[in-house]
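Sanity check. The docking grid for adenosine-5'-diphosphate depends on where the pocket ends up, so I'm generating a full predicted complex first rather than guessing from homology. Inputs follow.
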Amino acid sequence: MSLKLDNLHKHYAETRAVDGVTVELAGGETLALLGPSGCGKSTLLRLIAGLEPVDRGNLYLDGEDITALSPQKRKFGMVFQDYALFPHLNVAQNIAFGLVELGWAKPAQRQRVAELLSLVGLKGFERRRVQQLSGGQQQRIALARALAPQPEVLLLDEPLSNLDLALRESLKLDLKELLDTLQISAIYVTHDQSEAFTLAERVAVMRHGRLEQVADRDHLFKHPRTVWIARFLGHKNLYTRVHSERARELPVPMPALLHSELVKLSGDLPAELRALRQTGQMCELELFVPSWGITLLWQGFARELPGGEVSPGKPVGLHVPEEAWVPLEEGT
Ligand code: ADP
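Predicted complex below; grid placement will be based on this.
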């Protein structure tokens, strides 16, 4: 299986919701679409599902142009944020919904429903009413329903967003295991970095309807392409032109990112401890490096602190390896 999105466009009046998206999904791969609210993730997923027509561009499944196919003919499974289960049907009827449409015989339907309930950890729930289920259970049923007809691709739109934190964390891990076991191709839409990085090996960062960077998650974290992406991913030590007055002799041109997790608190580079904040075993240091004219934020375990007295105002020697610096493109 391979799914190719080729230069997809979708505008709503003045809003360019999807603005020239090109990306390919390989068989068995989970791709996360990560971006802030309003960047066009759901619209892109709806275009892929065929729930909305594209303005321009094409979709290819195994080389075949499926741009004009109806949602039913695309054979994609879809899971929504609000579960979207049918309230008047019981659990088994919900899961079997797509199978009935496809004309599966009753015994085969029953067997498939039981198989899926076991897969999502809800064995024996066939006769339950969906209103009696918790949010987490409803989302598991929605997942079972999407998987029942053995879709080519599973499309997930913020499936964990309506759940409380503890449930979200546990379902996130269960979902990861399920996707790995099934080896199904999936596109996972989220605004949550931890969900994207847990569930997908490859992450597409979306902004203003465009894919800003598509990369392996480790590469994305280590080498974000632009200042905006680095900031969106939560990197703290970013140096832009704003710093240019003070920043001198930096080993890389600005803008740049410094990976403080690679910085060692023992070395020859003179620095000054400006602030130290400790919470339990963790601590955060604000370090000023006079020769570069920059302040860097270092976070780590308190036990990693160098011996002797470490307190604000005291000099500290740092070791900053070359690979800790990553040059960025402007793109703010
Ligand atoms: P996301 O899923 O990343 O939050 P959406 O795809 O929902 O973003 O929306 C992208 C942009 O398109 C937003 O500016 C949104 O207001 C607009 N938009 C989405 N759907 C519609 C619609 N049916 N009609 C008009 N504007 C829409």
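Relevant for the grid: The chain has a mean pLDDT of 94.
Also worth noting: The domain at 244-327 is CATH 2.40.50.140 (OB fold (Dihydrolipoamide Acetyltransferase, E2P)).
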